[in-house]
Amino acid sequence: MKLSLWPESIKARVTLSTLGVFLLSLWLLAFLTTRMLERDISRLVADAQSSAARQMALQIDRELQSRLEVLEHKALLIDSDLMAHPVALQNVLQHQPIPNSLFNVSVLVVNNDGIAIADTSNLPERIGINYRERVDAFAIALNEGHANVGNPLMGLSTGQPLIPLAVPIRDASGKVIGALGGAIDLSRPNFFDDLTARGYGGTGHYSIISKNGRIIVTSSNSALIMTALPAPGVNPVLDRAMLEDVGNTYRYTTVEGIDTLAVTRGTATTDWLVAVMTPVSEAFAPIDDMLRRMTLITLAVTLLVGIALWWVMQHQLQPMLTTVDTLGAKVRSAQPMQSLPMTGRKEVDSLIAAFNRLLGQLSAREEETQRFKTIADNAVYGEAIADLEGTLVYINRFLAEIHGYHPAELIGKNLSVFHATSQLEQLNNTLNQLSQNGYFSPCEVWHADRHGSEFPMLMSGVLIKDDQGCPQYMATSAVDITDRKAAEVALKQINDELEQFVYIVSHDLKSPLITINTFLGILQEDITDSNTEGITEDLDFIKQAAAKIEALLDALLRLSRIGRIDSAPQTQPVKKMVDECLKVLGGRLQQQQVEVVVGEMTDQWHGDLTHFGQLWQNLIENAIKYMGDQPRPRIEIGTEQRTEGQVFYVRDNGIGIAPAHHQRIFTMFAQLDQKSEGTGLGLALVKKIVESYQGRIWVESAGKGQGSCFWFTLPAAVDAPWVQDAEQGEG
Ligand code: ADP
């Protein structure tokens, strides 16, 4: 079975598709809204950051400027004399001190070589140190002669970050003779604290960056204070921000991996930049909130829309579902299909109308098919339909029953079920002819029933094709020709017998006629010679010959009547028939002193009593006739029960019959002794009577002088059901 996540129900499909489109639209809306909001919020955040950065830059400028001004003012008090007297200079510095709030470390004076000569902190270890090399602010003041704020550096004695400021000291001629500088220790309270005490916004912060030093001077994020920036080229966004210090917005990822929005602004006093940083997560937090809320609302709305849609679909599709249920129930009930009722829904009704039209056509075809099926089912010849592999899909009662089956047993079986293995080649030839020509002409095909009995059928076949002419099935018709074949055989036998009969009759009638003709000639001579004795003798011979012709004609007449119903069949005990026959032949039996022994006979025969009489009379008469010179003639009459049924016999101790003649004596005019009395038709008559009752007759004799025993069966007379009925009736 193929598994699919896509449901089969139209209702479910429409609901899912609509919800899919709905969700997609909402997602698209959320996506576009988010993009727009991000852009707007970015701009707002950037404006706020820019404004904050500008404020801070201005404040830093103010603070540094005021400190430089204080230093410059102080430098004016120092001349070349004072420079030449460091102690006096130290006094001046200490007695007119610069407030600690401006420079929280110390203020010191260096001479033209940059060597410290006075220090407000009065720390002796500073005096004598060359600051020109260590502090760029002093170097610039001494070399370039202007006030400046130097790059931040780590204090020599404090080990803490410092920001140095320095101004030049000039003599009366304006020549730089030294420099006055102060430092702000960032680890101690200072004016940056006010600026960077609080971060920016919730999680954002300020940083003040020295462009030249590529170092963060200070930051509201204390972890960043005095950290070096990456070398140029490492972070392009940072490099660009260092160049463009006019309030542009940058988005970058910090070393901690935080997606950040930043704005930088340059200061006028120094090369410093004020950077205001806001994590994107904070800046866009409202969007995230909005998205969360939107997702919840979307889910709730989707659920509601889904339920509503399902309900609407259920309501709208109900007529269709009801129709389908009705249809299913009708199909299951196997009753004749009737038109489906209309529902009042336009689309469903047009479907039902089309279906009802189809149903009409279908039932018309069904009726037609049923008519033909009824004819085929009840035909007195066979009809079968098989697919192209020979598998039976239809078979009528006649064809099934003639093979010993019920039609239902054969559906799904192969055509070869009707044939014995020896017949399959003939079957295959016939089927090949069918597939090549599209039909096969009527031909005799041998079949076998389920017990293996073979019988002939006359068959014809045709291929059933579809509208495109492609073969679909094989249809065959078959007629049982067993009787016809048997009749053909019987007819041939009769013709053969008739031919033989005409030949023998003409021959046997000829010999007494020749006798008559011959003695008529002699008679004529004897009359001419007046030979009275001769005339009497001649007339005797002529009389005997005429009697022979009469006997022959009588016997032939009797023979021809066998098989014809001369009188109504009757039932009579066999013993009675035998007794009557013995009574008729009583004179001869007595004359020849024949002893007759009749065994116990309880059977009754049903049939033509004349035939039964002729049967017994011929056999008993022959026994008397062919007794020979037997001194103790004896005839036994009786019956025996054998496997083939009841067998009757007439046994004599007469001249016997050589085995060579045991068959011949039953043919017409067969006489072993031409001089014997009789016609040679008696046993032929007996055989014909026996065979007309489906019996057989045969003789047993050891040979000449050994006596003979004639055996016969009469199944149709003895075993026939009417005999049983008659017996019961009599009983
Ligand atoms: P037929 O009129 O000659 O008796 P059947 O047809 O009755 O003709 O018998 C044919 C021949 O069979 C007889 O001619 C005789 O030779 C021989 N035959 C018949 N019955 C006996 C018998 N009981 N014993 C010996 N031969 C017999």
List the helices and strands and how they pair.
Elements: H1 10-76, H2 80-84, H3 86-95, E1 107-111, E2 116-119, H4 131-134, H5 136-144, E3 148-149, E4 153-154, E5 161-170, E6 176-185, H6 191-196, E7 205-210, E8 215-219, H7 236-243, E9 246-253, E10 259-266, E11 272-279, H8 280-283, H9 285-333, H10 346-377, E12 382-387, E13 392-395, H11 397-402, H12 407-410, H13 424-437, E14 439-448, E15 454-465, E16 471-480, H14 482-528, H15 532-561, E17 570-573, H16 574-584, H17 586-591, E18 595-598, E19 604-607, H18 609-625, E20 634-642, E21 645-652, H19 682-692, E22 697-700, E23 708-713, H20 715-718, H21 721-730
Parallel strand pairs: 18-20
Antiparallel strand pairs: 1-2, 1-6, 3-5, 4-5, 5-6, 7-8, 7-11, 9-10, 10-11, 12-13, 12-16, 14-15, 15-16, 17-19, 20-21, 21-23, 22-23
Helix pairs in contact: 1-9, 14-15, 16-18, 18-19
Bound molecules: adenosine-5'-diphosphate.
Transmembrane segments: 12-33, 294-313
Keywords: ATP-binding, Cell membrane, Kinase, Membrane, Nucleotide-binding, Phosphoprotein, Transferase, Transmembrane, Transmembrane helix, Two-component regulatory system
Pfam families: dCache_1 (PF02743), HATPase_c (PF02518), HisKA (PF00512), PAS_9 (PF13426)
